[in-house]
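Quick one:
INPUT:
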């Protein structure tokens, strides 16, 4: 991802929390003294509305309009008023239907919930940690919030996969307030995004009850933590033998929709972490994809990243669909080549026969995923309906 303008690492909810960064995270994000979550939230830029006017070129007069309002940062307005010419207080000029949602509006209710929710005898506020990233003068914010102890530990690894949420917003009319399940693998620092459905509150009208919103989201994250180990364990039992497939591992990722530069990074990581460089299990393939997205994605956080995250998550949570998608993309590619040359390629026909054979041999291994995924989604729906 593109580097943010500033990063703020936090540990603990407030000054009453005796929280420290987990060792694996402190090694990744070395800071002398992390702030608390409440301090970090209150340090984020705020927004207020002010009047908008346009210049009439015929009379050279400025005419105010009630159809639009300027969304501005108040402390920068004051600094500009004192002669700060280099200060830019303006974020956006939306229509009058735009409703400002400031950081404390969203994350203040989360603070209340975290004080009350418990894990292993401690409040979530005492075990929370993470990072806040600012872009575009602080008008766009994204953050990762994790909970030490809410985790999945794999048998062959010392560092856990720690669960939490990623959330954010902007004041430019592009990103509504959002939150979704998130995890970070302490072993390799890969991030796993979109582990729950993305919940969104738009900047219009009544924003509703954020406390209830957060309670439902955290319950979903706990459900994922309970089931993620089983998904990973089963994915480790499903292997793709690339020596018997008509496409390479890099091509596997490009067939799924990754651009070439990400596909190459994902394939290199998966091959490096697999006991057999030709026979790769679906968990390792998923980990390769998250490695590429975490460390080499060139775009911004948002819709473009979300699309690739869905592809990566399908490798883990929907292996049958993933394999079918890659195979169908390969079939379409062969058909296009055959139509262009107006004859059937022998290599193409051989490749089609190979993927049919592979699909058949894997079918029985992936049926259990369909049942588990449906159970998990039904539990999500129950949580959402009861919120």
């Amino acid at each position: 991802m593109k580097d943010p303008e500033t990063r703020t690492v936090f540990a603990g909810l407030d000054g009453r929390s005796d929280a420290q960064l987990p060792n694996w995270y402190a090694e990744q994000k070395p800071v002398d003294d992390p702030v608390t979550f409440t301090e970090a939230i209150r340090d984020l830029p705020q927004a207020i509305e002010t009047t908008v006017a346009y210049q009439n070129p015929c009379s050279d007069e400025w005419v105010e309009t009630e159809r639009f309002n300027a969304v501005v940062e108040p402390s920068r307005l004051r600094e500009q008023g004192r002669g700060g010419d280099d200060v830019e207080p303006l974020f956006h000029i939306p229509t009058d239907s735009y409703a400002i949602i400031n950081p404390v509006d969203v994350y203040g209710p989360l603070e209340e919930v975290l004080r009350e929710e418990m894990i292993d005898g401690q409040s979530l506020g005492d075990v929370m940690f993470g990072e806040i990233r600012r872009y575009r003068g602080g008008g766009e914010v994204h953050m990762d919030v994790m909970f030490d102890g809410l985790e999945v530990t794999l048998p062959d690894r010392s560092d856990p996969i720690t669960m939490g949420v990623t959330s954010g917003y902007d004041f430019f009319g592009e990103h509504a307030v959002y939150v979704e399940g998130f995890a970070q693998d302490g072993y390799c620092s890969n991030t796993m995004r979109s582990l729950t459905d993305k919940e969104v509150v738009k900047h219009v009208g009544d924003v509703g009850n954020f406390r209830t919103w957060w309670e439902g989201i955290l319950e979903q994250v706990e459900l994922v933590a309970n089931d993620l180990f089983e998904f990973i364990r089963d994915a480790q039992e499903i292997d793709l033998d690339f020596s018997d497939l008509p496409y390479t591992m890099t091509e596997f990722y490009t067939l799924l929709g990754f651009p070439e530069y990400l596909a190459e990074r994902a394939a290199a990581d998966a091959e490096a972490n697999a006991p057999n460089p030709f026979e790769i299990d679906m968990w390792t393939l998923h980990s390769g994809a998250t490695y590429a997205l975490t460390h080499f994605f060139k775009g911004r956080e948002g819709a473009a990243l979300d699309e690739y995250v869905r592809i990566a998550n399908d490798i883990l949570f929907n292996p049958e669909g993933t394999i079918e998608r890659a195979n169908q993309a390969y079939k379409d590619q062969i058909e296009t080549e055959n139509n262009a040359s107006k004859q059937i390629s022998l290599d193409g026909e051989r490749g089609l026969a190979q993927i049919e054979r592979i699909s058949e041999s894997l079918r029985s291994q992936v049926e259990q995923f369909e049942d588990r995924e449906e159970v998990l989604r039904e539990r999500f729906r129950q949580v959402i309906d009861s919120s």
